[in-house]
Design goal:
The protein is α+β, with helices and mostly antiparallel strands. The chain has an 8-stranded mixed sheet, sandwiched between helices. The chain has a 5-stranded antiparallel sheet with strand order 5-6-7-8-9, with no helix packed on it. Strands 10, 11, 12, 15 and 16 form a 5-stranded antiparallel sheet that branches.
Length: 681
């Protein structure tokens, strides 16, 4: 899925992205500009002061006197980094050639010594000596159903598995996948809808509750010419993925998870015997994060491991023998990013630890042995753009809120606010957005959202509303960053509402798992309840509310107008799954279990179950060559509407994939203009 795929990738890579945010001077999408009041750049730390630029001028702040003075700008001003550069860890498993398509794997990889090239050709694994041109056919029995040196589309899409062949660092062996798709049903798409004739586009696509491919791993030894099967245990219905080599290159590691993805094992592999040893196990009642990142320390044997066992993501020190040494971080909050200053026995981390707002990020320090944990940014606003001084005594951090322009503070690292280095007055706020909250209908959580307003907002007028959403598991709908520009829809005369529904990320395991087994239930409930609360305001026209989303958001839009007809007058379903039995095993079963084990959840979570409630207008848009959310999702919905005698609008793109095609936004805009009439006062 275009947007769904992006979100899934972002979730898988969140730990890497979070680490990088501490290594840059600009974080979380905010551009740092010396011309913007309240924001600073070009920081240069000195022993007794700090120099920086803001609003086109250069300043010096002296720590002892707490005085700021304007200084001449240097001819060349370069910001000093206060954190170690991000190191790519791990020995080489070869040079991967080209770039695989989404959901696919590399087909060529050169050995680290540059002598051999492994190729996936005609369902088999072939090795070619780049100097002598000798060819070794490692496998010969591959066919359309059984493949070597490649993986399935679902592994690529949902587990980020874009590699299927790995050389050992000494180039003596190669590890490779075998995938048996014999029991997997193909899904057939048609290409060429705009041409004279069409052609079949088949894909082995395991759908929720159906048979999965059987994945195995083998090792081929170039010297002995022998092949060894890696024994991972299990029934054959589990997932094996994330193969990588340790930083010292002395062992390979592998992730294993059961089909429902509640049980994760990290194993080391003995390449001679094929035996595996479990070094980490994690289990959750809902689902377990399937690819936690191992952050190796300098000895390249110990590592920081993120665990959710407490209900929140925290870190502990482990090693490759399976030993647990100590817990480093703790607290009833979610950690967003972490960096290690090992020489100083110090760890910094950013967490959702504000008691005022769970989406406000705060900066913390703790010793590597888990002692002296303290929050450094004591103001209860959202913080970003962190600069830690080289002596670790001072921290610069930008702070803001949705309707509060950014300012930049200097803190002592014992948690004391020192001064504002640059600031904007709250009175200068653009007043384009407002964060609100309400209690979930089960009275378990505070739900947060943002109401976006037009530049010329007039509370005496009455505005139609667009509820723009995605809402899938682990995603983020809103940001507490300052809103300085109006949304495009607001300029067209709408109010826009976005909500971080139950099931979205950043709030810990209980909030994340609140939608487990019931997608399309509590998640869309929170959006509808947000509208119910807001329509009590005089300027919110509760009779003219639209809902729109793409991919998972398209599903939510359909569920919104069918399940909450008292709230939504119009909906745009863009490439949305309409029945989770239509989507792949790994993604769907992670959050919904199987249709066999959760029949009520799948029935309740199908848009077709609720079409009889339709009172408003719905626009269904889909690509005819969508190989992610197949177009039969739209056809099934349309068929149900036809059988119920209900009207709808639709638009299909004959050559469109999950991203649809040209004219999407125009079609959507015209639909809302007709159904919500933003020009009506």
């Amino acid at each position: 899925m275009n947007k769904l795929n992006c979100v899934k990738i972002l979730i898988r890579l969140s730990s890497v992205v979070s680490a990088l945010c501490l290594l840059t001077t600009v974080a979380w999408g905010q551009r740092s500009s010396t011309g913007m009041p309240g924001v600073i750049a070009n920081v240069q730390w000195k022993e007794d002061s700090v120099d920086y630029s803001s609003a086109g001028k250069r300043y010096r702040f002296e720590f002892a006197t707490k005085k700021k003075s304007e200084i001449d700008a240097p001819k060349q001003s370069r910001e000093e980094s206060s954190v170690p550069r991000f190191r790519r860890q791990g020995a080489s498993t070869g040079k991967y050639i080209g770039r695989p398509l989404r959901g696919r794997q590399y087909t060529d990889v050169e050995s680290p010594n540059g002598i051999w090239r492994a190729k996936y050709r005609d369902w088999n694994l072939v090795l070619e000596n780049l100097k002598t041109k000798e060819v070794i056919k490692v496998t010969t029995d591959g066919n359309e159903d059984v493949h070597y040196g490649t993986a399935s589309w679902v592994y690529g899409e949902e587990l980020g598995q874009n590699k299927a062949m790995w050389w050992t660092p000494d180039s003596s062996k190669i590890i490779y996948y075998k995938f048996d798709d014999t029991l997997v049903k193909k899904f057939f798409l048609l290409r060429g809808w705009s041409e004279i004739n069409t052609s079949l586009y088949p894909e082995y696509y395991a759908k929720a509750g159906s048979k999965n491919p059987i994945a195995e791993l083998f090792v081929y030894d170039l010297k002995s010419k022998e092949t060894t099967r890696i024994d991972i245990g299990g029934s054959g219905d589990e997932y094996i993925y994330g193969l990588r080599v340790s930083p010292l290159g002395d062992r390979f590691l592998l992730n294993w998870t059961d089909r429902l993805q509640q049980h994760l094992k990290v194993m080391t592999i003995d390449l001679e015997s094929g035996k595996c040893k479990v070094i980490i196990e994690e289990q959750q009642k809902t689902w377990q994060e399937n690819s936690p990142r191992m952050r190796f320390l300098k000895d390249q044997k110990r590592f920081l491991w993120p665990t959710d066992k407490s209900g929140f993501t925290h870190y502990e020190v482990r090693d490759l023998e399976g030993n647990v040494f100590q817990t480093v971080t703790q607290g009833d909050f979610q950690i967003s990013s972490l960096e290690v200053f090992e020489d100083e026995n110090l760890v910094s981390f950013v967490a959702n630890s504000s008691s005022v707002n769970p989406y406000y990020l705060q900066y913390h320090l703790v010793t590597l042995d888990g002692k002296q944990q303290r929050r450094v940014t004591t103001l209860d606003y959202h913080h970003s753009n962190f600069r830690l001084s080289p002596d670790r005594k001072w921290l610069i951090a930008q702070y803001e809120a949705v309707n509060r322009p950014p300012s930049t503070a200097l803190y002592r690292t014992d948690g004391k606010f020192v001064a504002n280095l640059a600031e904007q007055s709250p009175s200068e706020a653009a007043n384009l957005a407002e964060m609100f909250k309400f209690r979930s209908n089960d009275d378990q959580f505070d739900i947060y959202g943002i109401l976006y307003k037009p530049t010329d907002f007039d509370p005496a007028k009455s505005y139609p509303v667009i509820n723009a959403l995605y809402g899938g598991p682990g995603s983020r709908e809103i940001s507490p960053r300052y809103v300085s520009r109006p949304r495009r829809e607001c300029d067209q005369g709408y109010l826009v509402v976005k909500v971080n529904n139950r099931g979205t990320g950043g709030r810990g395991k209980a909030f994340l798992g609140a939608a487990y087994l019931k997608l399309g239930d509590v998640d869309i409930q929170d959006h509808a309840d947000a509208i119910r609360m807001l329509r009590k305001r005089s300027y919110v026209d509760g009779e003219r509310v639209g809902i729109v989303g793409h991919s998972y958001g398209g599903f939510m839009a359909a569920m919104g107008i069918f399940k909450h007809p008292d709230v939504y007058a119009a909906a745009v379903d863009r490439a949305g799954p309409t029945d989770w039995r239509n989507y792949d095993t790994i993604y769907t079963e992670r959050y919904m279990s199987t249709p066999q084990l959760n029949p009520d959840g799948y029935k309740t979570g199908a848009a077709m179950t609720h079409v009889k409630n339709l009172k408003g207008k719905i626009l269904i848009m889909h690509g005819m060559v969508d190989d992610n959310v197949h177009p039969n999702n739209a056809f099934q919905l349309i068929d149900a509407l036809d059988r119920a005698g209900l009207s709808y609008e639709s638009r299909f793109w004959p050559n469109g994939g999950h991203g649809l095609g040209r004219g999407v936004d125009v079609t959507q805009s015209e639909f809302f203009k007709r159904t919500l009439r933003p020009e009506t006062k």
